[in-house]
Fold:
Amino acid sequence: MKAVWIFCNESLVEEVLDLLDRDGVEGYTTWPDVLGCHHGCKTHWNDAVFPGKNWAFFIVGDEETVAGLLEKLRVFKEREEVHRAGIKAFVQSVEESL
Structure:
């Protein structure tokens, strides 16, 4: 099994949720109002200097589901407005232990 972490600007949340629903993702966990910064990306502290927040999504699925989701995310990120707003995805191997 694989896990996918998606971090995106709050302006993209509705479209990411639609993408997950259309892709047949059976379940996911979200964290709204995520603050942070990293090299090469805009800082989001949700204050007057650095307005805006991010969301985090955590999805677990089989390799085929994850591969399909990642391809759809790549196509989604090709849109200029999505690229500018900011979205990243990370994959890791996971195993259910309980």
Observations:
- The CA atoms of residues 44 and 50 lie 5 Å apart.
- The helical segments are 13-22, 63-77, 80-85.
- The chain has one domain: 2-6+8-53+63-87.
